[in-house]
Write a structure and sequence with these properties.
The protein is an alpha+beta fold and about 180 residues long. The chain contains four helices and nine strands; from the N terminus they run βαββββββββααα.
Length: about 180
């Protein structure tokens, strides 16, 4: 059974934006590439078809938090961990690490949830249990592997000044007032 998989990619020029950093949308493409490679390593495809069934794994949730920008030609390790294996869904956690230099540096974390569905003759999709052949080969990663303090670290003062992207502070909301009463001056 498997709960972990890694691929290594290099950031291509076409994956960067005008600021010279990898465009945020490409992190999702890297996640998808890792997921597809994970399934191939198990002897399957994410687009499984056979026996009259058309199984699909559409995305029902996707997120990514970024701490350090990636740039053209950065070598990136994408580590997939199976965070949750449900009866009809899988949730993966992704950890992105820049491999340039002698020390690897985690730069982002993502999460992707896919549902197991069967495409019906009329084109609609119906949730179905993960096929036994797939479910038998995938397991949830141990809890100690899934933890981590990435977001806590990303917001700590231990990061080198200016080398990390900072989360903007939320603007203060004006005090709420009853809209049925006139404002006082």
């Amino acid at each position: 059974m498997s709960y972990e998989f890694e691929i290594t990619r290099r950031v291509e020029f076409s994956e960067t934006d005008l600021a010279g950093i990898m465009h945020f949308s490409n992190f999702f493409r890297f996640m998808e590439s890792a997921e597809h490679a994970f399934f191939r390593s198990l002897g399957f495809s994410v687009a499984r078809s056979g026996d009259g069934l058309e199984l699909c794994l559409p995305r029902v949730h996707a997120e990514c938090d970024y701490a350090v920008p990636l740039r053209f030609e950065d070598e990136v390790q994408v580590r997939l961990l199976v965070e949750r294996k449900g009866r009809r869904s899988l949730t993966y956690q992704f950890r992105f690490s820049r491999l340039n230099g002698s020390v690897s540096e985690e730069v982002a974390r993502g999460r992707l949830t896919v549902a197991s569905v069967e495409r019906q003759a009329d084109g609609t999709m119906k949730a179905v249990p993960l096929p036994k052949a797939i479910a038998d080969k995938i397991q949830q990663a141990p809890a100690q592997m899934l933890g981590g303090g990435f977001l806590a670290e990303a917001n700590s003062s231990s990061f080198r000044n200016g080398s990390r992207l900072q989360r903007p502070k939320r603007p203060q909301r004006p005090p709420s007032r009853n809209l049925h009463q006139p404002a006082t001056r």
